[in-house]
Amino acid sequence: MNFKKIAGIEAAKYVKDGMIVGLGTGSTAKYMVDEIGRRVKEEGLTITGVTTSNETERQAKSLNIPLKSIDEVPYVDLTIDGADEISADFQGIKGGGAALLFEKIVATYSKKCIWIVDDSKMVEKLGKFPLPIEVIPYGSQQLMHLFEEKGYQPTLRLDDEGKTLITDGGHNIIDLHLNEIDNPVEFGHYLDQLVGVVEHGLFLNTVSLVIVGNQDGPQTIK
Ligand code: 5RP
Q: Keyword Repressor: yes or no (predicted)?
């Protein structure tokens, strides 16, 4: 059984005619986008999608899902996206797929957000998954030094060819190996005020619903 697929297909049921839908990024979100594409084709579902990455845009276009950019819509009704870790109190780490900036922008202007994950992503406390920080290339080595001094064990993310990864927004990603984040809100505020940091992968108080795929099927947690 593919737990990511189970969650993705279940989440697509929340999409209704006329909605403006934020389409997340990653291997779980891919199943949700496929299912929305199927509904558009086979059921005549009429939605407008707002994509969160170039990758999802390519997929949505190939499925003939009508799209608009985030700046062409007044708001987004519902965004469905994956996550890398979700804590017991529904805080999350995102950005494993390097799309955290656009994902956070779309989530911010969404009336409702749903995360879709397999059960391995549910944790007690955030931090085992390296926390992605999107940074401006200029001065990024200074941020690397700063994070090293703080003991955050930073690594500059590389692409598949071993070159410094460039995000869709033209930035780099530094992953922080923290192991545990005691106070995600406080740590998020610290990161927010660092010059050169564009955005971080702590998604706090973002979702009201999580759909977890596991061996018993989709579990919806509120
Ligand atoms: C991309 C993300 C993804 O949603 C997250 O990494 C989960 O991906 P996957 O569903 O492939 O495990 O935040 O930036």
A: no
